[in-house]
Amino acid sequence: MASSSSSTHQPKNFDVFLSFRGEDTRRGFISHLHKALCQRGIYTFIDNDLPRGEEISIELLKTIENSTTSIIVFSENYASSTWCLEELAKIVECRKNKQSVRPVFYMVDPSEVRKQEGKYGKALTMHEEKFNDKKKIQRWRDALRKAASISGWDSKNSRDDSELVQKIAEDISKTFLNKMRLSVAEYPVGINSRVKSVLKSLNIESKDDVRILGIYGLGGVGKSTIAKAIYNKISYHFEAKIFLENVREKSITKGIIHLQETLISEVLGDRSLKVHNECGGTDMINKILYKKRVLIILDDVDNSDQIKKLLGKCDGFASGSRIIMTTREKHLIDTIGREKHLIDTIGNGVSTYQVKELDEKESIKLLSKHAFRSNKPNEDYLKLVSEVIHYAKGLPLALVVMGADLYGKTIPEWESDLNKYTRSL
Fold it and tell me: CA 271 to CA 2: how far, in whole Å?
């Protein structure tokens, strides 16, 4: 997902459309909110460059239509702008098409907006005198009443703008989290218990330190699957987050520079930035992530050089950051934990978690899900299922592949395939 764009010739699809009165909030609250949303990978529209006039442009109306969520920042002078009121009316209209709408009451009481009292009442009266168009004014009044009745955020419930921005960014991130989830597994047997164990080690609630966790185990044991499930559960906590997949393979086939560019583009949402050499890429990553609370997952690393070139010295991340690596090599994590610069930076914050193979009960369930589309195997196949379980040795990948291969086959076909599996040992 990208950061923000201002006006463009062709309306694009945005995650969030910000509606606000520029003279009240643009240089302060809105600029901070916009930045916070963009840093979380939420593609946010802000109309920095659109020419103003009495009539709102068709381009802007299309942008509202093409946005997933609209955030309306009701400030002191919001209703004095006919442009803002037209935006609002369009936003409320789009709500009928399941678009999410969230109001922010910034230094105004929600009842003042809903009942059109105070400055909101005066602004509407002024518009009535100017336009002599009862239908238009009533449309604006209805939109104000409806929007102000929606659950949102009230600035008086926050200590300052910083806290309010943080609340909004976190809530919006959670909303989009379900739409940006990594694909974990069709049948996540045994995943939840292992994820819970990992989360204990990560201690996400603590913002006092930087922690590195190495998830290690045999190939096919489910390390990447667990890491993806963790990403889905916790990523909304962080300013910047990325799951960098297949590091070992891609460092060979595409090179470290490609991985560095991928990391940078995912964090910034800008694919135009190019890395010209590995050292420059590391420096760029460090500058981009400096003082940010980050979640970085490096999937399937196999040497410390990959980690150094993708993360640098890890000394610029804000407290509360979490770095997760999956690897087959436990000694790689042990080596990282002995790096002096890391000891100086994060102390004892490097830990490991070994992913154990599935037990017999879990193995039977996972195989049954794929081979029989059921939690339990067909009774006629019990002996054959036992042989498959013995062959797979608790490795989820083997159970998934064999289960999918054996699905719908007869007992003789199972026996034939099992002979092939055995001969391939």
Answer: 8
